[in-house]
From TrEMBL:
MF GO annotations: N-acetylmuramoyl-L-alanine amidase activity
Membrane-spanning intervals of the chain: 12-34
Organism: Ruthenibacterium intestinale
SMART domains according to UniProt: Ami_3 (SM00646)
EC category: hydrolase
Name listed for the protein in its UniProt record: N-acetylmuramoyl-L-alanine amidase
Length: 739
């Protein structure tokens, strides 16, 4: 009778305890629902990438890149591993996973509906968590993971959504959470905007693949302005495209230590830069150049001056009459008066009776007897098929080559008569480029050659005696050489070579010498005939190939850049005058931009000069032979005589001497013109000294016109210089054979 109250008390206690436990469990569940355990922050997927982010962007759902059908956890992990492995192979260091779209989410949170494709096979105690599996797969490949939510489903004012994303960042080993913002119409880039402090991730749209330089310029401009820039994400569906374009964009993301280039702002003060006030002009016309305020009208003697640029630099062709000429430039309240004098012919000058011309003097060179041996003096000397003009070049020979004279003719150079010696080859050398050796010079003779491997290729040293005049022609995997006044053993061979696979020896017609043909098992890139310490040497370079690293396709490629002029040699003056950047300055700026871009792509870059110094043309050409680069580009800017309308001279052109430089010249013209909006003037043969080296493709690039006001504003603009440097780098990449 008395036990019933006790049992009731015990039951009440148990009930309270039970409710307390349930309440505690509920509290724990509720706490965990709102504040899940912190994910492993040491996981590879949770780490910020080393350097700029290069990410594959993956979308989920029926229309996405992954989870397109009902999948088990094992199937999801297998797919994630496949994507992660391919991303790593394509040069990526991260994944951007668009984990929340209108179709649902690929992660677990009570406030967000999960994708049906992920949850179809779930049980109560075995729910599938796609994001956890993708983080696991990414971590196995050392890839960072950024979770992104589509802007169309994200409302930052909704506190429940914000809390859900905070839980995502806490619960999963991700490096960050971003909001995906689609690009505006006409824009190159989508943006992954950080939800918290952090750098911007640029999403590369499909349009950017046709203009990869846009990403490079975006990254450089961000770095120059001090903006935070984390990297870029590439749509997974686009990554099977052109590997070269992908490499250009991947490399563009490494924006460490962006150098300052010209840092020039054009003056808006009304001023004349050319000619000087009071100048004497001898031509019918003069191109007057200067600076002005682009926001105000400009007149010359009351007539409007058309300015083709946007920053106020102007140029106008004026007629110059005999006597004193006065020109008044007016802009707002400013006025500049320019005086030009053109001499007036005196009657005595016009009526002077013709006189007998003075006889042309002869220089100190001498005629020599046929059979006389002469040695070439000079780093580069032309052998001419017609001695009357310097451009009539058949071959270029180097200092130390010995030829035999067959005939002598007179020609004229620099206002004097000089002798030209016709050699056994039939071509002429100007006598002042030689030293006369006499009649008793031993004929060259070779029994074979030995090869020595170098970093760039091989040096073939001929065994025997003599340094003969040699004509050479390289066609793919065959090097044909004509050695004049030379005997070669019929069994001539090259010992120790890893490149030469065959040798053919035949006599030249009429006993003029010997023909040697070397064959190789792969195309050669360049060659040079040298005479070192009295020996005959042939330097041969095998063809380079692009590297396997997608982000550094030019690894192993060397480039020599030559910013023209320097120091007291300023080159052409620009339309803004001598106080503004001269040609030497913009040449250096373009070369520095090209160097930076090439190094991003993995190339080793050498510079003829890195500051305001000067080297002679011979020193510049000698650097090519010394360094044996894979490419040589002399960077210059054009000019015209200022008696014509320089507004009509515009565009990019490039010159090559050897055919090996023709493709590079053509590609440079196309890419630089496209990058800057200039006309393509073309690629032309020319005998510019610095490009006369067959070691590698060697060209002289004329980027634009210094005295065209519109082009001067471009060539002195910082971002246009960067665009030019990028175009040069892309041109070199396009000329390197793929493996």
């Amino acid at each position: 009778m008395h036990k019933r109250p006790k049992n009731r008390r015990r039951g009440a206690i148990l009930a309270v305890v039970g409710l307390t436990v349930l309440a505690a469990l509920a509290a724990v569940v509720l706490y965990l629902a709102f504040y899940p355990p912190q994910a492993d922050r040491t996981a590879a997927s949770a780490q910020e990438p080393n350097g700029a982010l290069r990410a594959a962007s993956v979308r989920f759902g029926p229309e996405g890149d992954a989870l397109r059908s009902d999948m088990s956890a094992d199937e999801i992990l297998a797919e994630a591993r496949s994507v992660a492995q391919q991303a790593r192979a394509r040069g990526m260091n991260g994944l951007v996973l668009v984990v929340q779209t209108r179709e649902g989410a690929v992660y677990r949170d009570w406030a967000v509906p999960a994708l049906e494709q992920m949850t179809a096979g779930d049980t109560l105690f075995h729910p599938t968590d796609g994001l956890a599996l993708w983080c696991q797969a990414a971590g196995e490949e050392g890839l960072s993971v950024y979770a992104a939510v589509d802007q169309s489903v994200y409302d930052p004012s909704d506190k429940w959504q914000s809390l859900a994303l905070e839980r995502l960042a806490r619960k999963y080993p991700v490096a960050g959470v971003r909001v995906y913002r689609p690009a505006a119409e006409g824009s190159f880039f989508d943006t992954y905007e950080p939800l918290a402090e952090g750098g911007e991730i640029v999403g590369v749209t499909r349009a950017a693949w046709s203009q990869p330089q846009a990403l490079f310029l975006h990254a450089v401009e961000a770095a120059r302005s001090g903006a935070s820039f984390a990297g870029a994400a590439f749509a997974w569906s686009d990554l099977g495209g052109d590997a070269q374009t992908l490499g250009l964009m991947l490399s563009a993301l490494d924006t460490a230590d962006v150098p300052a280039l010209l840092n020039y702002t054009p003056s808006t003060q009304l001023a004349v830069s050319y000619p000087a006030d009071g100048a004497t002009i001898y031509t019918d016309n003069c191109f007057v150049m200067g600076t002005s305020d682009p926001g105000q009208d400009l007149t010359l003697n009351g007539a409007a001056v058309e300015r083709t640029g946007t920053r106020g630099t102007f140029g106008v062709l004026v007629a110059v009459q005999p006597g004193d000429n006065v020109y008044t430039l007016t802009q707002g309240e400013q006025t500049v008066t320019l005086h030009i004098r053109r001499p007036v012919p005196q009657p005595s000058e016009m009526e002077t009776e013709p006189t007998e011309p003075e006889p042309t003097p002869h220089d100190s060179t001498q005629e020599v007897e046929p059979g006389t041996a002469v040695r070439i003096n000079g780093w580069l000397v032309s052998l001419l098929y017609d001695p009357s003009g310097d451009g009539n070049i058949s071959e270029t020979v180097r200092d130390g080559a010995v030829g035999v004279v067959q005939n002598c003719v007179e020609t004229t150079r620099n206002g004097k008569i000089t002798w030209a010696y016709q050699l056994t080859s039939g071509d002429y050398v100007l006598a002042y480029n030689t030293t006369v050796l006499g009649q008793d010079v031993e004929r060259a003779s070779f029994s074979g050659a030995t090869a020595q491997q170098t970093e760039e290729g091989e040096t073939l040293t001929f065994q025997g005696a003599g340094t003969p005049v040699i004509y050479s022609n390289l066609v793919e995997n065959t090097l044909e050489m004509h050695l004049y006044d030379t005997d070669v053993a019929p069994d001539f061979s090259v010992a120790g070579s890893q490149l030469v696979k065959g040798v053919e020896v035949t006599a030249l017609d009429g006993g003029a010498g010997t023909r040697i043909v070397l064959s190789f098992d792969r195309p050669l890139w360049g060659h040079t005939v040298e005479f070192a310490d009295g020996t005959t040497q042939v330097l041969v370079k095998p063809s380079p190939v692009q590297a396997q690293d997608p982000a550094r396709p030019l690894a192993g490629i060397s480039v020599l850049l030559d910013p023209g002029h320097g120091q007291d040699d300023g080159g052409a003056m620009g339309a803004a005058g001598v106080e503004a950047p001269l040609e030497k300055d913009v040449n250096l700026a373009v070369a520095q931009a090209a160097r930076y871009r090439l190094e991003q792509l993995g190339a080793t870059v050498h510079m003829i000069r890195t500051d305001d110094t000067f080297l002679s043309l011979q020193q510049r050409n000698q650097k090519i032979t010394e360094l044996q680069p894979d490419f040589f580009i002399a960077v210059h800017h054009n000019s015209v005589d200022l008696s014509v309308d320089a507004n009509q001279s515009a565009g990019t052109e490039c010159y090559y001497f050897y055919d090996s430089g023709k493709q590079l010249a053509q590609t440079l013209v196309q890419n630089v013109a496209a990058a800057t909006g200039r006309p393509e003037r073309g690629a032309f043969w020319g005998y510019y000294y610095v490009a006369r080296n067959a070691t590698c493709p060697a060209v002289l690039l004329e980027v634009g016109f210094m005295v065209n006001p519109a082009e001067y504003e471009q060539v002195s603009d910082e971002m246009t210089v960067w665009a030019t440097g990028d175009a040069i780098a892309r041109s070199i990449l396009a000329c390197v054979p793929a493996q």
